[in-house]
Specification:
Helices cover about 45% and strands about 10% of the residues.
Length: about 230
């Protein structure tokens, strides 16, 4: 999670594109990250603008394994109640609605359950996973519900019956494939040295790429892509 836009783009070499001839864009994020929530309009606009030119993939960050293991050295956050101030700051700086009361009333114990739920939805399709992640974020950031609770995650799935096979989702929620896929995401976070969310890794057809960290405006991302495709 970050409260500012980092200015440095680190060049990433020898990272293969997802599909030959297209840009590969990997979105590193976490359901509990308020800066990923405020980044959502930019992310959606980017997907619409580059729908024919790029492939998109989500990587779940596992921001908070538990509060015993968590420390945000940028915001000096080590306790749930301190996260409320981070949420309020994000809302103040961006003007977006964010319900920060969750950190005072019923603080989530971990972001792992929500990450696993997204990976379970991804076993049905990446598009379903993207929709599920968006609903999870809305449930936390607007509705103020605790997305570390299984019943909340299941209820979100039940509301997506039009596109989600809920029986399969419930079976996959704690399944070994889901757990293994989330572990792969966590390993990728380490390998790519992703330390803040949201982050984008954008790779061109020649394997050259950039990492863009933070709540970047759309113009800045497109400018980075333009330099990458020249």
């Amino acid at each position: 999670m970050t409260n500012k836009t980092e200015k440095v783009d680190n060049q990433i070499q020898n990272t293969p594109p997802v599909v030959e001839g297209k840009l590969g864009i990997v979105y590193y994020t976490d359901p509990l990250c308020c800066w990923s929530w405020v980044f959502e309009p930019v992310w959606e606009a980017l997907q619409t603008m580059l729908a024919e030119q790029a492939t998109f993939r989500y990587c779940m960050g596992g921001l908070i394994p538990s509060w015993e293991d968590f420390y945000d050295n940028v915001n000096d956050v080590s306790k749930p109640i301190q996260m409320g101030a981070v949420f309020m700051q994000a809302a103040h700086l961006t003007g977006q609605q964010i319900n920060s009361h969750i950190w005072f009333d019923d603080p989530p114990a971990s972001s792992y359950p929500a990450c696993l739920a997204v990976k379970a939805a991804a076993l049905q399709s990446e598009q379903i996973a993207a929709r599920y992640l968006k609903e999870v974020r809305h449930t936390l950031m607007i509705d103020g519900l605790n997305i570390a609770r299984k019943e909340v995650l299941v209820n979100i799935a039940m509301q997506m019956k039009d596109i989600l096979n809920t029986e399969r989702f419930l079976n996959d929620l704690s399944g070994q494939v889901t757990i293994a896929n989330f572990k792969k995401d966590l390993e990728e976070i380490i390998v790519k040295n992703i330390r803040r969310f949201p982050s984008l890794v954008i790779t061109n057809a020649h394997g050259r790429g950039v990492i863009m960290v933070g709540n970047r405006p759309l113009d800045a991302i497109l400018s980075g892509i333009d330099q990458l495709t020249r």
